[in-house]
Amino acid sequence: MGLFDFFSKEKKESLDKGLEKSKTGIFDKLTKAIVGKSEVDEEVLDELEEILISSDVGVDTTVKIIRRIEARVARDKYTSTSELDRILREEVAALLQENNSQDVTNSFETQNLPKPYVLMVVGVNGVGKTTTIGKLAHNFSKNGKKVVLGAADTFRAAAVDQLKLWGQRVGVEVIDHGMNTDPSSVAYDAVKKGVEVGADVIIIDTAGRLHTKVNLMNELGKIKRVMQKVLPEAPHEVMLVLDGSTGQNAVIQAREFTRVTDVNSLAITKLDGTAKGGVVIGISDEFKIPVKYIGVGEKMEDLQVFNKMAFVESLFQK
Prior knowledge:
GO molecular function: GTP binding; GTPase activity; signal recognition particle binding
Largest sheet: 8 strands, mixed
Oligomer: single chain
EC number: 3.6.5.4
Keywords: Cell inner membrane, Cell membrane, Cytoplasm, GTP-binding, Hydrolase, Membrane, Nucleotide-binding, Receptor
Helix content: 40-55%
Organism: Leadbetterella byssophila (strain DSM 17132 / JCM 16389 / KACC 11308 / NBRC 106382 / 4M15)
């Protein structure tokens, strides 16, 4: 069984429910835009452009989607407004396939994964970073994987305490040195412990934000270097957690973090509480970094592996 297979069992209902606010917002506006119209014309496309931008898809990505639909309408000569949701779904899915062709599969083959697999998690405070780590730890351990957590966000007492609570809750070991200690020494000890106990996964929490980008870059760089003293290839993955409910602020955060560290996966949280679900499409398109997980609810199982086709189907299906 692959390391991440447990996410693939998530029910579609959970995804549909989590995206309900976004879906309702899009379709209420779309219905109003096409009322009394039988074919997709320039006016309908202008309305659609506004709808996508207001759903936080982002201007550049929206323009790409509209151009694709325009080309298709021109090619087909006549396109009924009743087909618009299907065409929109198909073109968004095609854009995501092309622009982020490295899709995140629901599993890594365990024999091809290094053991322990070191995952460093970054993101500003308040985005659900520590909760995401807790949910990941729960799902890994539930599926028989040995997990060690490292509480390296030592600038915030709440972060250390919160991670320790998650550790107790899901029954995994947490390495911490308390608050105002050196984050890199926590990361070092967590990796060392993970190696000693034969952990499958080591997840390192890091500070949400330091005073300047230079400080943040230096801190994350130091954490990496210190971990590499134990495991030369660590971290195997740097995951940026973003709060989907903040819409374009999440995009700005992604720009900031990708400038200061090598982010190679994304987790987008809190999609169930917002109508800004379109932000996932914009982020996926702009950064070409795989969106690996999305949070669509409070439950442990509501952290799902991001499947582009399932997401688009759910978001744009009436």
